[in-house]
Amino acid sequence: MWCNTALHAVPTTPAEDPEHPEHERKAVEEQRRQLTAAQISFAGACYSLAIVVLAVIPGCVFSPEVLLLYAASSVLVFWTVLRHGSGRGIGALLQGVLSTVLLLTFGPQQPLIFFMLAGHIIMPVVIWHWVDLIHDLTR
Question: pTM for this structure?
Answer without folding.
Answer: 0.78
